[in-house]
Amino acid sequence: MPIASEVLEGDLPLRVNYLQLETKKRAATDNTNHESKRCVQKKKKFTPDSELRFKLESCSKVGDVTGALDIYDSSKDQGVKLSQYHYNVLLYLCSSAALGVIVPGKGTRHQKSSSEVAATVEDEGILFRGNMTALVPRNTTGLSQEVMKLALDRGLEIYERMKLEGISANEAAFTSIARLAVAKRDGDLAFSLVKEMTTSGITPKLRSYGPALYTYFKSNQVDKAFEVDDHMRSFGVQPEEMELQILLELSLKAGLDQRVYSVLHRLRRSVREVSPSTATTIERWFSSDAASSSGSDKKYDDEDVRRALAAQGGGGLELGWIGSGGWSVKRTALDASGVCESCRHKMAAVDLNAEETNRFAENLAALACEKERDANSFKEFQEWMAEHGPFDAIVDGANVALFNQNFSAGGFSFSQLNSVVTELSNQHGKSPLVILHKRRVTGGPAASPQSQELLKQWTAANALYTAATGSNDDWYWLYAAVTCKCLLVSNDEMRDHLFQMLGNDLFPRWKERHQARFGFSNSNPFFDMPPPYSTVIQECENGSWHFPISRGNDENDEAEEPRKQPRSWLCITRRGNKVIE
Length: 581
What we know:
Elements: H1 5-8, H2 12-45, H3 48-62, H4 65-77, H5 84-99, H6 114-118, E1 121-123, E2 126-128, H7 145-164, H8 171-184, H9 187-199, H10 206-218, H11 222-234, H12 241-254, H13 257-270, H14 276-286, H15 289-293, H16 302-311, E3 327-332, H17 354-371, H18 375-388, E4 393-396, H19 397-401, H20 414-428, E5 433-437, H21 449-460, E6 464-467, H22 473-484, E7 487-489, H23 497-500, H24 507-514, E8 515-521, E9 524-528, E10 538-539, E11 545-548, H25 560-563, E12 569-574
Parallel strand pairs: 4-5, 4-7, 5-6, 7-8
Antiparallel strand pairs: 1-2, 3-12, 8-9, 10-11, 11-12
């Protein structure tokens, strides 16, 4: 727009204000035109496929299954081809609604509190947790039975159309369809889906088996539930406490004492303690007539029993039910030394058995070779250990020498390390193996005459191994302690990513039994040795059982109050059985 000449020729302030106003108007006009162009561009890019995606995602956010089905029917009438993603959204909504566990978005008329939606469900004596909770029909949303039935029928119909169109199902789709099978109470369909996953090249996970296992549990089909269990293990999927509790419940109902015995030992090997719900299931078994009639009058020599315990690493016999007659079932506690206050049996310090130790060592070596810059350096260490081991104790040299030192000043105390080595030598009658990184034995504190003399002594006694440049010495001292089945002296909590790669199966159990922490009093070392007993499920020498009951997440600071209370244990003994001292 032309600027008026009278304004341009007028006072300077007036001209400036006028120019600023016109500039703002033009900028606003340009922005409006730009936004209009962007809207046109957006509209052009909004294809039928992306429009369908947007609508279905909107329904998913608010849990609107009927709206999603209307959109699906409309798209089908218009000939819009659905992709795998579209089917996944539809199947998820249908399966969730069919079970009554759909979680609506905020502001919808079916909205429930998060505590109601996430609440665990007690069902026939089993407290379902985690993924299994979503399989229990409970209608947390107030959906009508008609809508739930509609979601089930239409979900199965959509799955059939998906197959007819040749759209392959991924794990998400299989999971949703399996949940539909639960709503239909069709365990065979749920199990067939797991098998279909494997033939499609999809590796099943633990959650893949939940629908079939739960449905067979609800219909009390013991053999089929154990068939699912067999299939699970054949693919290397290890059931957890929840799945084992289902198998225990089914075996209990059928009075299958040998299956109960087997499941209890699998529970012993997979969990350290049992949930209150599992404890209740165990109490019901040992209080049953089937449990009283189980057992054998076979007599075992005390030495045979001890050999069986040693083979299992302590805490288990796996010889079958010992003794006969009824069981005494009590809730009790242990004293500080691990003696049961009910039956006076002392709990064992349970270690890994020989097979588990070898597996742990092999996994550890494989990880070390994979992660180390030079795998040959670690292999050389393995050869050195095979030649010079075993040792009674392994010392994490850097951890000891740096303890309470001034890091900024480069403090690394060889005299402190030597005091620990000397004390361990006095206790065991031979030198421990000290593991140090190469940079710790050259230059700095290592260059002093006293340090050099210590290093020479340890090297001459084959009591020192130096990890190569570029290596992580953590792998070395851990591998040495595992293969020697001996004490590891270190205050390292072993919580970083390196140790997390070892998993939660064998590592925590090994660590509890083998790590000795240390401290100093007036420059004299002292050791906090592993506890005198293990807080784990134990089958004792006389055939009795002890089950520690979970009291909350001990790693959680909020669980501090429960930890102040004595841990509750289930003490289960044959009436009249003796305690083997």
